[in-house]
Amino acid sequence: MQDKQFSISEISQWIDREVSISGWVRHIRLSGSICFIDIRDGTGSVQAVVVENQVSKNTFVNCSRIKIETSLTVTGIVHTEPRAPGGFEIVVSDIVIAHIPEDEYPISKKSHGVDFLIEHRHLWIRSSRQLAILKVRSTLIQLLRSYFHDRGFVLIDTPILTGAIGESTGNLFETQYFDLGTAYLAQTGQLYLEAASSAFKNVFCFGPTFRAEKSKTRRHLTEFWMLEAEMAFCDSNCNMDVQEDMVCWVIEKITEVCKKELLFLGRELEPLKIVKPPFKRVTYEEAIEILRKEGFEIEWGDDIGGDEETVISERFEKPVFIYNYPKKVKAFYMKPNQDDSRTVLCDDLFAPEGYGEIIGGSQRNDDLDSLLRRIEDEGLDRLSYEWYLDIRRYGSVPHSGFGLGLERLLAWICKIKHVREAIPFPRLINRIYP
Ligand code: 4AD
Ligand code: MG
Question: Is 240 inside any structural domain?
Answer without folding.
Answer: yes
